[in-house]
Amino acid sequence: MEPLITNDAVTLGLLVAVLGGVFYTRGLGGGWTKFYTFVPIILVCYLIPSLMATFGLFAPGGENLWPIARDYLLPASLVLMILSIDLKAIIGLGPKALIMFFTATIGIVIGGPIAIFLVALVSPEAVGGEGMDAVWRGFATLAGSWIGGGANQAAMLEVYGFNPERYSVMIAIDIVVANIWMVFLLYGAGNPEPIDRWLKADTSAIETLKTKMESFSLQSERPSQAKDFVLIMAVAFGAVGASHLVADLLVPALETSPVFAGSILTSSFFWIVVTATTIGMALSFTPARNLEGAGASKIGSAFIFLLVAIIGTKMDIFRIGEAKTLFIVGLIWMLVHVALLLLVAKLVRAPFFFVAVGSKANVGGAASAPVVAAAFHPALAPVGVLLAVLGYALGTYGAILCAELMRMVAPV
Predict the structure, then answer these.
(1) Helices and strands counted in the chain (H then E)
(2) How many other C-beta atoms are found inside a 10 Å radius of the C-beta of residue 261?
(3) Tens-level pLDDT at each residue, the chain (412 residues)
(4) Which residues contact 371 (CB under 8 A, 6 or more apart)?
């Protein structure tokens, strides 16, 4: 069916207008607050463009919009989100916070291959596939989302070359499974005392954290000026240019080696993403991280939501019912993640707050970790952002490790 709108500029305008409408309604309060509490904003940003493309308003992927989003907005968003990492502040959260965060990451890394292995024992054809249709490639995008966030998910889609026509199934698994767990976390945040008693946790550190983060939030904010936004653009797109330069230099050299031929190391996009991530981490040790106070991560978030909307146009929601078994893989994967979290929390007597925020800093990232943290206390929302930013930094590396493990156990 010929799309109604074929002009990419018009499509882009519509997508940005949709994002504006979504964020406007989220700020209205009342019933909208309840709606966005249980229907995450990122779901809406995926779903509306998907429906628009599915019913023929414009062409899936916006024709030329996706390459621009992938090659420019994605690495720029990674740099701006990682730029605000404060390793001293993260260490200052205490060892239990970091233990639970890294436990959550490990749970995702090992949960994927365990889930594929178990389902393959019963239904190998459901988790097999060849080439760009190989199921493990699709779950690599899920690993990117559940360790880092939307930017890392999009990165894994390009790095591993999963069939875009089947990507909607992975988006659905991501959203449905992650938000089932989100419901439990929000419920627990409203009444954490019974869980903390079961974990035998010392919650005195949480009160100290509240005071510390209230102070941190006040210190990090400052009025932004035009020069701040120019500097943010210079850092972001300077890093994008450097990332493309590294890819242009490394890929031809690696392609000549029979050792690396055909491997992920000969993917240009792989080096773009890894380089952007590394530059962001390096800049976090320099005065450039002060740009966070002027809104660096907020601009990075805006890029991510536009990226999400463009990816949404690539979805075909009518194909979700074709892969029910894959939802079982996602559920087993999440159960491994949750079981490991609770086991370690019990062993180290970590407060449920660290369990919840550590989990959502991975599974959901900056879009939902602050929501869960604020459910405990509004002053704690920056803790979610802080750990989620660390998740962005680890998302690329962790997702690649998880993907390679899934490749090893997936049936041929």
Answers:
(1) 19, 0
(2) 11
(3) 677 887 888 889 999 999 999 999 988 888 888 888 777 777 788 788 888 887 888 876 666 788 888 889 888 988 887 787 666 666 666 788 889 999 999 999 999 999 999 998 998 888 887 888 888 898 998 998 898 776 678 778 878 888 877 787 888 788 778 877 877 887 788 778 889 889 888 777 677 766 765 565 467 677 888 999 999 999 999 999 999 999 999 988 888 887 776 556 777 877 888 888 889 888 888 888 888 888 887 888 888 888 878 877 876 556 556 677 888 899 999 999 999 999 999 999 999 999 998 998 888 776 567 767 777 875 566 677 677 777 777 777 888 999 999 999 988 7
(4) 37, 186, 360, 381, 384
Could you give the CA distance from residue 336 to residue 346 in angstroms, rounded to a whole number? 15
- Cβ–Cβ under 8 Å, residues 135 and 117: no
User: At 5, phi and psi to the nearest 5?
Assistant: -115, 125
Query: In degrees to the nearest 10, what's the CA dihedral of 230, 234, 236, 237?
Result: 120
Please state, in angstroms and as integers, the Cα–Cα distance from residue 401 to each residue in 52, 82, 329, following that order: 35, 20, 18
pTM reported for the whole predicted model: 0.66
Matching residue, tokens 């996009």: 269
Exposure string over 27-54, b if 16+ CB within 10 A, otherwise e: eeeeeeeeebeeebbbbbbbbbbbebbb
Query: What three-state secondary structure class fits 58?
Result: strand
Pairwise CA distance, residues 150 & 153, whole Å = 5
Cross-strand partners of 5: 58
Pair of tokens at residue 31: 């019933």
Token duo for residue 137:
């490639």
Q: Are 109 and 147 in contact, with CB atoms under 8 Å apart? A: yes
Rounded CA separation 408/392 (Å): 25
Give the C-alpha separation, 339 to 345, whole Å.
Answer: 10
Q: List for the chain the helix, strand, coil content (%; round to 5).
A: 80, 0, 20
